[in-house]
Design goal:
By secondary structure, the chain is of the alpha+beta class. The chain is built from twelve helices and ten strands. It folds into two domains: 85 residues; 237 residues, BirA Bifunctional Protein, domain 2. Helix 1 packs parallel to helix 4, helix 3 runs antiparallel to helix 4 and helix 5 crosses helix 11. It is elongated, with a radius of gyration of 37 Å. The protein binds 3,4-dihydroxyphenylalanine (DAH).
Length: 357
């Protein structure tokens, strides 16, 4: 037994890797291992012999097992040491200058808009992109026969012929989030809702999916003057200039009364879009005082509260700010375009750190 002890403890101490250690385990204490066979021979011994040999063999087996365990862990430590020596990284090196990926201009502008309105006290709300037609239309004072339904080029979801429930739509604007927010939060209320919207339309300035930000402020003393001030502050902050020229045009939306569309002065010369100069105007948003019926649909008392609302095209203002002449390019996933117009991933827009620099 002493021979076995000496032999295995030495072999184990000399084992140089995990697999030779495993071979040794099988050879010593495996099913047919030398020590296991000895234990099996206990049955053939006299009771006196067994009384001596039994505990001694058990002790030997335990000793071999713990030597195996200890060697295994010291081999693992040594292997780790080895890896740490060969695989190392100098964390003080400067980061790579070549770009791996970039932030899409829409994501960038989305964050810029949130940063500006957050500073004006607006929270961010969300709603579903597949919307019931009550939220998308009726609650916004666009009843079934209203021409605005046809004008919106709505995508309807499929319903089986014998299903007479009204179909859902891909929301045509972010305005339904006005209703959802009023229901959820009541008045007073100040929110913006950035999101995707859908219309069947396709040309240089229209794509079937695009992005809007809805704005809504409801309180007991809100007027058109508050709307105008907010929008002017927003536009100046967004374009990072002291003044831009806005044109408020009387307009009509079913959900606001009165309503105004807002255009911004720009030029398109040489196919390049520039803001703040030239003789063209680009429409960037629709706005107005929330219609009493809309407040009521959102569960708010129009006798007591008023509100202003606006719907702004994110893609439009991204084109203007970053001089992107064709809206469709936003969604082509052309790597050369993305590298040219994209933003560094770690430059999060903020009013203090700077919006786009
Ligand atoms: N929902 C309108 C659209 O998509 C935009 C809009 C106009 C939103 C006026 C408003 C608003 O909140 O007051 O064309």
């Amino acid at each position: 037994m002493d021979d076995l002890r000496v032999k295995y403890l030495k072999l184990i101490a000399d084992a140089s890797d995990e697999s030779s250690l495993e071979d040794l385990r099988v050879q010593a204490v495996g099913k047919k291992g030398e020590i296991s066979l000895q234990m099996r021979s206990l049955g053939k011994m006299t009771p006196e012999e067994r009384q001596l040999a039994g505990p001694a063999l058990n002790t030997l087996k335990d000793e071999v097992n713990s030597a195996l365990l200890a060697r295994r862990s010291s081999l693992a430590d040594a292997a780790l040491e080895e890896r740490l020596k060969s695989e190392w990284l100098d964390v003080t090196l400067p980061s790579r200058t070549e770009r791996q990926g970039s932030i899409h201009p829409i994501s960038q502008v989305w964050e810029e808009v949130i940063a500006i309105f957050a500073d004006l006290g607006f929270g961010v709300a969300e709603g579903p992109q597949i919307e019931s037609d009550w939220y998308n239309f009726d609650a916004l004072n666009i009843p079934g026969h209203h021409p605005a339904r046809a004008e919106m080029d709505t995508f309807y979801t499929y319903r089986a012929e014998d299903d007479d429930r009204p179909p859902h739509v891909l929301r045509t604007h972010t305005s339904p989030v006005q209703i959802r927010s009023m229901e959820k939060m009541g008045a007073p209320l100040r929110i913006i809702c950035p999101g995707r919207v859908y219309r069947a339309d396709y040309d240089q300035t229209h794509t079937p999916m695009f992005h809007q930000v809805e704005g809504l402020a409801v309180d007991t003393d809100i007027s058109m003057a508050n709307l105008k001030w907010c929008l002017e502050e927003f536009v100046k902050a967004f374009f990072e200039v002291d003044s831009v020229e806005l044109r408020f045009r009387a307009s009509h939306f079913p959900f606001t009364e009165p309503s105004a569309e807002v255009d911004i002065r720009c030029s398109w010369s040489g196919g390049q879009l520039k803001v703040g100069e030239g003789n063209d105007w680009m429409e960037i948003l629709g706005s107005g005082m929330v219609h009493p019926k809309v407040l009521k649909a959102g569960g708010i008392d129009p006798q007591k509260y008023q509100g202003f609302a606006f719907g702004l095209g994110i893609d439009r203002i991204a084109m203007l700010k970053y001089g992107i002449p064709d809206l469709r390019a936003f969604f082509d996933s052309d790597l050369r375009w993305l590298r040219h117009y994209g933003f560094l991933a770690l430059d999060k827009p903020g009013l203090i750190s700077g919006l786009s620099s």
